[in-house]
Design goal:
- It is a single chain.
- The protein has a single domain, classed as TIM Barrel, CATH 3.20.20.
- 38% of the residues lie in helices and 16% in strands.
- It is α/β, with parallel strands linked by helices.
- Helix 9 links the parallel strand 7 and strand 8.
- Helix 6 crosses helix 7 and helix 7 packs parallel to helix 8.
């Protein structure tokens, strides 16, 4: 792993420590779209800029397309206030790492966010808590906001679910640069792609535990929920989380607009 720490940049939406965190909505496209379809979708998302501007309560929005579409995101989202980033990052800043992309390179593209530790990366690519911590360290050193994914694999009672989730969260936060901005995405694995989100009471219990972990670390953190999230989800979780992490629901920009307006109105 590289010891080189690139110059950090200030966050666009630094939160006042004494103020309530600003709501935030993220969208990961995974590998559902090709390049042309991603470009078309980004163009549609850009048209939501006026919606964001007139919301009664400001909401941050960011999107995570595949690596080849970052240039399109930079072009099409310029001036909209909509952030963008990547779905993965490598822990090293340079070296013989064939096929990998560094945090510094992402920052050069104008990316602001990067997803780390998603359950699919853990399952299919063998990522561990140590890997996620290293990627979080690299991301925050480069001034990126890591979107740290964490959640229990199987449906369990809140005590067991919190224990499994907190192990992941604490390991990742241990890698974060002091004072850095992070987002924790609570995504119970069993709820990803399910018919319904995890029960609101369950999410609230785990969210409270994650808040405690955030307070124990020198970071400025926000907490969002993902796992079959959509319109109506935030209404049941308001006060427990700071926003949502969306998947296929946001493939239709109209669904994304509905979520933004719902969150702003709470």
């Amino acid at each position: 792993m590289s010891d080189v720490i690139p110059e950090a940049v200030l966050p666009h939406h630094a939160a006042d420590a004494d103020a309530a965190p600003r709501p935030v909505v993220g969208v990961s496209l995974k590998l559902y779209f090709g390049l042309a379809q991603t470009r078309a979708w980004l163009g549609e998302v850009a048209t939501l800029a006026p919606v964001l501007a007139r919301l009664p309560r400001p909401v941050d929005l960011f999107v995570l397309p595949s690596f080849p579409a970052l240039a399109d995101a930079r072009e099409l989202l310029s001036g909209t206030g909509i952030g963008y980033g990547a779905q993965d990052v490598h822990w090293a800043e340079h070296g013989a790492w064939t096929g990998e992309v560094s945090a510094g390179m992402l920052a050069e593209t104008g990316a602001r966010y990067v997803e780390v530790g998603h359950a699919e990366r853990r399952r299919h690519f063998g990522e561990t808590d140590e890997t996620v911590a290293a990627k979080t360290r690299a991301a925050t050193a480069a001034g990126l906001v890591p979107v740290i994914c964490a959640g229990e694999h199987r449906a369990a009672d809140p005590t067991a679910a919190a224990e499994e989730t907190l192990t992941q969260v604490r390991a990742a936060l241990a890698g974060a640069a002091p004072g850095s901005e992070v987002i924790v995405a609570y995504e119970p694995v069993w709820a990803i792609g399910a018919r319904e989100p995890a029960p609101a009471g369950h999410v609230r219990a785990i969210a409270a535990a994650i808040r405690g972990a955030l307070h124990d670390h020198d970071v400025r953190g926000r907490l969002i929920y993902g796992g079959t999230a959509g319109p109506g989800t935030y209404g049941e979780l308001a006060g427990a989380v700071d926003g949502l992490f969306l998947g296929r629901l946001a493939h239709d920009p109209e669904g994304l607009r509905r979520v933004l307006e719902e969150i702003s109105s709470r």
